[in-house]
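> @MW can you paste both from yesterday?
MW: sure, first one:
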Amino acid sequence: MDAIFKALNDPTRRALLDALRERDGQTLTDLEARLEMSRFGVMKHLNLLEDAGLITTTKKGRFKYHYLNALPLQEVIDRWIEPLLAKPAARAVLTLKAQLEGNLPMPLDAEKPSYVMSTYIDCTHDALWDALTKGDLISKYHFVCETVQGDFAEGQDVNYLLPNGAPMLVMRTLRIDPKSLIEAEFHPRWGGDETPSRFVYLVEPTKSGMKLTVEHYGLTPAQGGIADGWTRLLAGLKTFLETGAAHRFAMEAQA
């Protein structure tokens, strides 16, 4: 937590976070052009933000892309604010649109993700993998769906149902590397544009727990709100695995 406050206590680093909030997935060259500072200076600020967990990066080919990672900030806020708030009511889920080029997924090393988020969880490798792949466990922390039918397995569908029993979305598993990677299509089922997008879970053991990274591909500029859903999902997953208690970071009701 000290690293987060230290990272935020600088106007240049806050400007870099603002830049990534406006447009995620920028390179060092992109960010350098926004600041009156040397390339080395910008790199130092980015490294400090990455060390604090406030940004996460992914390298595709010869380019390194930087993404705002909102989860640590949400966890800091929840430490003091969450106990003071009434449990929010569920609201209508966010509208998602995405379009793949044709029907075949592009290789992961050839496509820049639209969105990336990482978190660290104090749990075992097996516990994290089970929580990501088993429908009955997903239902304990998903921010909307109390019923999740099916388990993640190659070629299989996992159905997410809203509290009223209506379908919210279908996850169609494309690829699984056991205990390290899940790649799936994301099929919205709540009306409107039902064109699929694609996401990837990357699971990595660390010395003191597990690291989970989410990459989402094929999102349009209008779909920036999906970050809120991922933040709530990962916060619920982390709470569930570290406390053993089911918890949903439900979305606030809208008038």
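MW: second:
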Amino acid sequence: MFILKRQDVEITNVQHPKRDQKVSILNYQGMTFRLLSVFPAGQEEEARTFWRELTDNQGKACVLLEESARYSVWGKVRLEQLFNEPAAAPGPTVSSGGVAAMPPCCIQGTLLMLQSLYMDIEDLLGAKQSAAFQRELSQIFKQGQFSQTEGADAITYLLTHDPLNSLQPPPWREQQVVNLLQEMHRLGKSAFGKASFASRVLEVLQDMPSGDRSTFQEWLSKSPVAALWR
């Protein structure tokens, strides 16, 4: 429907009256749009393909917003329609391959932990070690076929942008998330030896809304990597 620049629109965060979360709303010429998906700067073609799929093939009214560090796709919505949505319990979404994906809050929690570990390595061990961490992470994503991690820009985006501001985290499968948490612990142990880094990493979960945090912590406590992250 529209391809717009940041200066063309107004973006606000609105508190959802029925959920413990804020909703990003884009305003353009009296119309409102809700955030659907975010792509890093290096994935312009993927963003345009997703936007065309919604507009041309599905007939939806959508905005493709071009910014310097990212592309984002927004779907037209009326605020009264959005706020009248029933409060749904967290459940699995469906990935592009048709396989059940993790609840978004579990992926958000994992990304917060990943960012916390990366920042610890960068702050305490320096740029050389953080660059090595990014290289290893790239291999983990490649071998595990994680979506939305293709290229250095995509990985930098995951490591530096707040996952709580995106309404559509990457649709990773449960086994991928388990493998990532296991590899994260291995990399942390390699970087810090026997030092207790896990507790510092877990502190970042306090940034999550309480309901989402409880859901993620409950899943983590029952996962195969529970013993690593205590």
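> thanks! The CA atoms of residues 79 and 168 lie 19 Å apart.
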